[in-house]
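Sorry to interrupt, but I need a hand with the structure work. Could you write out one complete protein record for me, on any chain you like? Could you add the entry underneath, on a fresh line?
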Amino acid sequence: MAKYYLKMFLFILVILFGIFMFIYGGYDDSPGAQGLGLLLIIIGIWRIIKNKK
């Protein structure tokens, strides 16, 4: 059970890092950083949903 919570915690960290990259990419005017941030957000949400099933 602890392994499940550790995975969820790490995926939440990935989502938060993606949000940070998206915001920083907008501030730095870097579409590549924004794209990577958006990709991290989508992957994190997808993996959380996949682990819930």
